[in-house]
Amino acid sequence: MADDKKAVKDLNGVERAAVLLMTIGEADAAQILKHMSPKEVQAVGEAMAGMTALSKETVNLVLDDFCSVVDEQTSLGIGSEDYLRNVLVGALGEDKANNIIDRILFGRNSKGLEALKWMDARAVAEIIRLEHPQIIAIVLSYLDPDHAAEILTALPVNMRVDIMMRIASLDGIQPNAINELDEMLEKQFSGSANSLKTSLVGGLKTAANILNFVETTIESEILDKVKETDEDMGQGIQDLMFVFDNLVEVEDRGIQALLREISSENLIVALKGADAEVKEKILKNMSKRAGEMLRDDLEAKGPVRVSEVEAAQKEILSVARRMADSGEISLGGGGDDFV
Predict the structure, then answer these.
(1) What pTM was estimated for this model as a whole?
(2) What CA–CA distance (Å, rounded) separates 261 from 75?
């Protein structure tokens, strides 16, 4: 029983969601997946595909946790939003539930723009590359930062700086303008588009979020050119960015939580190119045995390409940002405003 409880505790929100979906039947699971974003579907799908044999007791404990959350909630005495939030967080974990709650509560059901979220980055770049840079900026602001970063990288080099500056300059868009853009895109995919109620897209934070996911060399090139044109804007974007070295500013409990969510192989590769201060920050938040093993692995690891180190660091930072967005950790330093 103790082993089963430990097994449940070791499961993150996505894995618990996978267990739940695998026990409620294909039809009901399919209905739930319809309300998830492409990235959420992929994450839960990968968790389901990689789910090893769990004991019956472990599965029951996961379901009991879900049921206890539902049983403790009531629509009497609390708002429906609170009830919905608590139930979904209990079922899917806070990071995944928040995205679903946004779409349910704020009506983010734009078909044309939503369709882009399911498409390959290069395909999206091909669709929008001939549009006015302002249109491209709005589209990228609407998409998830990592997806937008891939699209930006796939666009012509001479467009990137202009688009990034337009993203940073955005200060909200009229719903009608978003709706027109949505309808324009929807015509390319057939059908009709629904209106958007949310118009808060763009700004320095959005630009920083996108650049956080862009390959380091491209990121530096874009940022340098933005500074050449507008020093204040470039510095504003840089101040809101969170890079791997900033992990030294994260509190110890945050580092410990982050370490539970990332793979040891990724960590080893990422630390091969990290400053000594970052390495020590990581090591001091591990058990003595785990720290010794990590040191041994780092020494045994042969030369690693810079591109591989940067990719591993970006992946870890992606996890850190998701955890910060869900309130699990707080990113310090330049990331204060990011959180």
Answers:
(1) 0.43
(2) 34
What is the model's pLDDT at position 193?
37
Backbone angles phi, psi at 109, to 5 degrees: -120, 35
Last residue of a domain, one of 188, 210, 240: 240
Does residue 6 share a domain with residue 93? yes
Rg (CA), the chain: 22
Q: What is the dihedral of CA 322, 323, 327, 329, to 10 degrees?
A: -140
CA neighbor of 14 nearest in space, from 83, 86, 94, 73: 94
Residues constituting the chain: 339
Same domain, 133 and 232: yes
> Is 60 exceeded by the pLDDT of residue 283?
yes
The 10s digit of each residue's pLDDT in 51-87 is 777 777 777 787 777 776 665 554 444 445 565 566 6
Which residues constitute the domain of residue 116?
A: 111-240
Single-letter code of the amino acid located at 140: L
End position of a domain, from candidates 89, 106, 123: 106
